[in-house]
Design goal:
Shape: globular
Largest sheet: 9 strands, mixed
CATH architecture of the largest domain: Alpha-Beta Barrel
Strand content: 15-25%
Distance between the termini: 57 Å
CATH superfamily of the largest domain: Alanine racemase
Number of strands: 20
Number of helices: 12
CATH class of the largest domain: Alpha Beta
Radius of gyration: 24 Å
Structural class: alpha/beta
Length: 442
């Protein structure tokens, strides 16, 4: 696993060479902190495992994992493209310097205005609109005809692979009951519809089996299913304009529960499978998100107070499920450590770490921390699906974000104020209000 974060000789926790206790003072808490150098390096390592040469491969970063501009720009600088699932994410990718030809657009319910925008990008639209149903092909054709532009299209194949307990049910996408992708017995009809339209150019075939895969084998199996489907269709005379095959993402991250394959391991597995299936003439796309950004982001939080009970004592922090919903939504476990390891050589205890949100699910689990509670903690491996899934539930404000590069703070956002949130909610719908938010009501 990438070495992020680390500690200096004094026991202070560092991310990208910056003391996180200094970040907490500069930005307040809760705050997300990201190591841009680490993220760029991870993308570079993954790209090195794919075939070399112009146009031979594409690391299409899954923007939904973390859509922060500095992160997307850092990955664009490394030669990455983007996988987007909304018109808003498409706009972020374009604004961060990713050219339309290196963007693929996934998602099961793209709106007409989103399709129109994808078709209007650049000289020929984006690299591919990846349709996920037979019915979507007709919708895309209608939008292309209305725009007078031929749309480049990819077909996402559902590989019909049930991961069972290998991952969480909420992030398994390649089984028969999933809403994602074209079922295998419908793929032939989807290809015929796409290739039979003068307004569509079928350029890609893609698949995605699920996320947080604990081993390479499910990823390889899904790729093998896709490659065999492509080979059979080509032998039958189809897929004449095919340019790429896309094996999706889902690479695992070690959240502290044991070693997992690294992103290059997944890439090398599908490269070998592609060659074995005789498809070396096609470009290979992969769509990593979590694996590139999760290890290089932390959520820092201030300890508010302990609560001692007859059972496991509670440690209450100022970050909650509205800031990081993964534990509540996926029963995910993130390691939690003190910002300053003042407990070295001292006594440690098991603490039940919880947040301030008024829900029993606002629970980060039991963690070994100093018996004398630290002033602040860091929730590790939080670079993916953290801020991007955050909410203002309970009137809590979105956390700050801090971006570290070259051993210094390269940029940050400000945490929203409680006053701004209250004013926005109290005046929603432009209804006149006599409520004064700057002083107590009488």
């Amino acid at each position: 696993m990438p070495m992020s974060p680390t500690r200096d000789l004094s026991g202070a926790l560092l991310l990208g060479g910056v003391r996180l206790s200094d970040v907490a003072l500069a930005a307040g808490t809760p705050a997300y902190v990201y190591d841009l150098d680490g993220i760029a390096g991870e993308a570079r390592t993954l790209r090195s495992a794919l075939p070399s040469g112009p146009g031979a491969h594409l690391v299409a970063y899954s923007v939904k994992a973390n859509a922060a501009g500095p992160i997307v720009r850092a990955l664009a600088d490394e030669g990455c493209g983007a996988d987007v699932v909304s018109g808003a994410e498409l706009r972020v990718a374009l604004a961060c310097g990713i050219v339309p030809e290196r963007i693929v657009y996934s998602g099961v319910a793209k709106q007409d205005d989103e399709l129109d925008f994808a078709l209007a990008c650049g000289a020929r639209g984006i690299g591919a609109v990846q349709v996920e149903s037979v019915e979507e092909i007709a919708r895309l054709e209608a939008r292309a005809r209305a725009a007078g532009r031929r749309a480049r299209v990819g077909i996402r194949v559902n590989p019909s692979i049930d991961l069972g307990e290998a991952t969480h049910a909420h992030i398994a996408t390649g089984h028969d009951d999933a809403k994602f992708g074209v079922r295998r017995d419908d793929v032939g009809r989807a290809v015929q519809l796409a290739e039979g339209s003068q307004w569509l150019e079928l350029v890609g075939m893609t698949t995605h089996v699920g996320s947080k895969l604990p081993s390479v084998e499910p990823y390889r199996e899904a790729a093998r299913t896709l490659f065999r489907t492509v080979r059979d269709l080509r032998e039958a005379g189809g897929l004449r304009s095919l340019a790429f095959v896309n094996t999706g993402g889902g690479f695992a991250v070690d959240y502290g529960d044991g070693p997992v394959p690294r992103p290059p391991d997944f890439a090398r597995a599908v490269v070998a499978e592609q060659r074995a299936q005789g498809l070396g003439d096609l470009s290979l796309y992969v769509e990593p998100g979590r694996a590139i950004v999760a290890p290089f982001g932390v959520l820092i939080a201030r300890v508010i107070q302990p609560k001692l009970t007859s059972g496991v004592p509670f440690l209450m922090i100022d970050a909650g499920m509205n800031d990081l919903i993964r534990p509540a939504l996926y029963q995910a476990r993130h390691r939690i450590v003190p910002l300053d390891d003042t407990g070295r050589g001292g006594q440690w205890s098991s603490w039940h770490v919880v947040g301030p949100v008024c829900e029993s699910s606002d629970d980060f689990g039991e963690h070994l921390l100093p018996r004398d509670p630290p002033a602040s903690v860091a929730i590790l491996d939080a670079g993916a699906y953290g801020f991007t899934m955050a909410s203002r539930y309970n009137g809590r404000q979105l956390p700050a974000e801090v971006f570290v590069r070259g051993g210094v703070i390269a940029g940050k956002t400000e945490r929203e104020s409680a006053e701004a949130w209250a004013r926005e909610r109290a005046t929603a719908g432009d209804v006149p209000s006599l409520l004064r938010l700057d002083r107590p009501a009488r």
